[in-house]
Design goal:
The chain is of the alpha/beta class. The chain has one domain. The protein has 4 helices and 4 strands.
């Protein structure tokens, strides 16, 4: 695998192929991925939206609500290349909040796949149980 660990290889493959866009669980982090957010700091909607905005360099006009998040993720004209994010300790994010965020990201990943641009979210810390049936384990 060219000196890459199993997880690095799997993530690298996803990040090279828009047809693989989506949301994935990963068994561990610490493999040099950027940008990274710590789910323990994303305990409410405001913190989650602000964290995502900072990690993905959203413009100053970002309105810090679900509609504004969707609009910015749909646009991303200020950022070239892939749209990707790793959230460590994703289990610390309240379930309802995470569910809304995942719904938005899932829809946008499909849109970006149709346009040939990589868009994937990686979640570390969602072990068996919460969301594990809906979100595939990548490595």
């Amino acid at each position: 695998m060219n000196g890459l660990s199993e997880i690095e290889y799997a993530v690298a493959e996803v990040l090279q192929r828009p047809d693989l866009n989506g949301i994935f669980r990963v068994s561990h982090s610490g493999f040099g991925f950027q940008p990274v957010l710590d789910g323990r700091a994303l305990s409410d909607k405001q913190a989650l939206l602000a964290g995502i905005a900072g990690a993905l360099d959203f413009p100053d006009y970002f309105g810090e609500n679900w509609d504004a998040l969707e609009e910015c993720l749909r646009d991303m004209s200020w950022r070239s290349g892939q749209i990707s994010l790793l959230i460590e300790h994703a289990d610390a994010i309240p379930a309802a909040l995470l569910a809304t965020f995942l719904e938005i990201v899932g829809q946008l990943a499909e849109q970006w796949a149709c346009e040939g641009r990589v868009c994937s979210l990686f979640l570390c810390g969602l072990d068996e149980g919460r969301f594990s049936a809906e979100i595939p384990l990548l490595a």
